[in-house]
Design goal:
It is a single chain. The protein is α/β, with parallel strands linked by helices. It has helices at about 5-30, 45, 65-75, 125-140, 145-150, 155-175, 210-230, 275-285; strands at about 35-40, 80, 115, 180-185, 235. Helix 3 packs across helix 8 (about 275-285) and helix 6 (about 155-175) runs parallel beside helix 7.
């Protein structure tokens, strides 16, 4: 081959190799770019009661071992965590406490991933149901269904009338801030078993007939959360099957939710560290992360 032709071949080869190298470098850099991740939600997302506490926002009783931190650690995502204990849907667009900004402020146009639990505190659903049924259970010595007899469908009615539209508005506010983000709305893991466990009454003093009543109410809330998620383009992360057998009546090391009495967390009837890890793992599985 003549020298001019050889030089042309060598130049073309070098250019092609350079282009290939640039392409590979760009692909690697793109693949290595961490997800921009905003974690919103209530105490089930904040892991209220789990140590260590995030001291950057003490009013929120947020843990650095909550499922958003677990998920971010395992995926390398860049986490902005504004989860806050006692949060309601209204706290997505208004300040929950002085100095605690509306949660959607953490979501921006370039956010890649948003996760949350929300809705359980609207109407005081969880706290009112647990405390009311717990009190009724103690007074009835665990017999009958005094809570169901007194409150009937009132919890479910409030979920349909108030929580559902509030969920739609809250999730819509997230979507408006980050139209391209993946939004994962987690259901609430089971608090009670499906039927009464007499050995659990000392830890979760709910009358035998009210255990399935509360279980059905939680199933209804989760169904409404699912509906609102799907109607706003979010992914619903279902825990109905995954958390079965891990309710507050199970032994330490098996349960994901702590009981009302004699539990291991400072905040009862909330996920423990194991529950938060399992919530992270289930979310990652559903989203195909990690």
């Amino acid at each position: 081959m003549h020298m001019p032709a050889l030089r042309r071949v060598m130049t073309a080869t070098a250019a092609a190799a350079g282009a290939l190298a640039l392409g590979l470098t760009g692909t690697t850099a793109q693949a290595a770019t961490p997800l921009k991740y905003a974690a919103l939600g209530d105490s089930y997302s904040a892991a209220s009661g789990v140590l260590p506490v995030d001291l950057s926002s003490p009013l929120c009783l947020r843990s650095t071992a909550n499922y958003p931190h677990v998920l971010a650690s395992r995926t390398g995502a860049r986490l902005t965590d504004v989860t806050c204990g006692a949060a309601q849907t209204k706290d997505f667009t208004a300040a929950q406490y002085p100095g605690v900004a509306p949660q959607v402020n953490a979501v921006t146009a370039d956010t890649d991933l948003v996760t949350l639990t929300i809705g359980g505190n609207d109407n005081g659903t969880f706290i009112n149901a647990i405390l009311s049924c717990g009190t009724a259970g103690v007074l009835s010595a665990g017999q009958g269904s005094p809570c169901k007899d007194k409150y009937g469908t009132s919890f479910d009615d409030a979920i349909d009338a108030n929580t559902y539209p509030a969920l739609k508005r809250a999730l819509g506010s997230v979507r408006a801030k980050a139209p391209g983000a993946r939004v994962a709305v987690l259901g609430y893991p089971w608090i009670t078993p499906a039927t009464a466990d007499p050995s659990c009454f000392a830890r979760l003093p709910i009358a035998s007939g009210d255990v399935p009543y509360l279980h059905a109410m939680q199933a209804h809330l989760n169904a409404v959360v699912r509906r609102a998620a799907e109607e706003t383009g979010a992914v619903y992360v279902d825990f109905a099957q995954a958390s079965t057998g891990h309710d507050a009546c199970q032994a330490a090391g098996t349960r994901w939710i702590e009981p009302l009495l004699f539990g291991q967390n400072i905040v009862p009837v909330h996920p423990n560290a194991l529950g938060e890890r399992r919530m992270a793992e289930r979310t990652m599985s559903v989203l195909g992360l990690g």
